[in-house]
UniProtKB/TrEMBL annotation:
<dbReference type="GO" id="GO:0005634">
    <property type="term" value="C:nucleus"/>
</dbReference>
<dbReference type="GO" id="GO:0006606">
    <property type="term" value="P:protein import into nucleus"/>
</dbReference>
<keyword id="KW-0175">Coiled coil</keyword>
<protein>
    <recommendedName>
        <fullName>PTTG protein</fullName>
    </recommendedName>
</protein>
<dbReference type="GO" id="GO:0005737">
    <property type="term" value="C:cytoplasm"/>
</dbReference>
<keyword id="KW-1133">Transmembrane helix</keyword>
<feature type="signal peptide">
    <location>
        <begin position="1"/>
        <end position="21"/>
    </location>
</feature>
<dbReference type="InterPro" id="IPR052304">
    <property type="entry name" value="PTTG1IP"/>
</dbReference>
<keyword id="KW-0732">Signal</keyword>
<feature type="transmembrane region" description="Helical">
    <location>
        <begin position="80"/>
        <end position="105"/>
    </location>
</feature>
<keyword id="KW-0472">Membrane</keyword>
<feature type="coiled-coil region">
    <location>
        <begin position="108"/>
        <end position="144"/>
    </location>
</feature>
<keyword id="KW-0812">Transmembrane</keyword>
């Protein structure tokens, strides 16, 4: 026994929509009738509905000129459709390339700023360490001078070379 939902799986969608007829059956009717089937191409020169030549990307001029061919919609010819699609694709590509360039520029600028900040921080720390080192050196010198003074070893700063006297 076949259930109703099983017939939907067996019957192709084109037959369910009534589009199983060949495109030539819609010739001398209307463009809208012809283009209900997406595999059809309407030619205005002789009002014929023909199968879209899927082997070639664009329909050859022997079938129908691009300015008289309609595919998908009747209100725009194939030539204008191609130009519009090319313009849209071009705009998308240009937009993507501009976005990529801008993002790369921003990344480079932020990386440069980050490196400059790190260099400033390193220079600041280096200066702090140098000052701390000078401070410790000065403290050590004062401590050593106190010890020398305590034991009488502190020399006169005015005349560092003095004669040694033996008493």
């Amino acid at each position: 026994r076949i259930w109703p939902f099983q017939t939907l799986l067996v019957v192709p969608a084109a037959e369910l929509l009534g589009l199983h007829a060949a495109c030539s059956a819609f010739s001398l009717k209307s463009c809208e009738e012809c283009l209900k089937n997406v595999s059809c191409l309407w030619c205005y020169t002789n009002s014929t509905c023909i199968d879209y030549p899927v082997r070639s990307i664009f329909p050859p001029s022997s079938l129908c000129s691009l300015s008289d061919a309609r595919w998908g919609v009747c209100w725009i010819n194939f030539e204008a459709l191609l130009i519009a699609m090319a313009v849209v694709a071009g705009l998308i590509l240009v937009s993507l390339s501009v976005c990529c360039c801008y993002c790369c520029y921003c990344r480079r600028r932020s990386r440069r700023r980050r490196l400059e900040e790190e260099e400033e921080q390193i220079a600041r720390k280096r200066e702090e360490r140098r000052l701390e080192s000078l401070q410790r050196k000065h403290e050590r010198k004062m401590k050593h001078d106190e010890i020398r003074k305590k034991y009488g070893l502190l020399q006169d700063s005015d005349n560092p070379y003095s004669r040694f006297e033996n008493e």
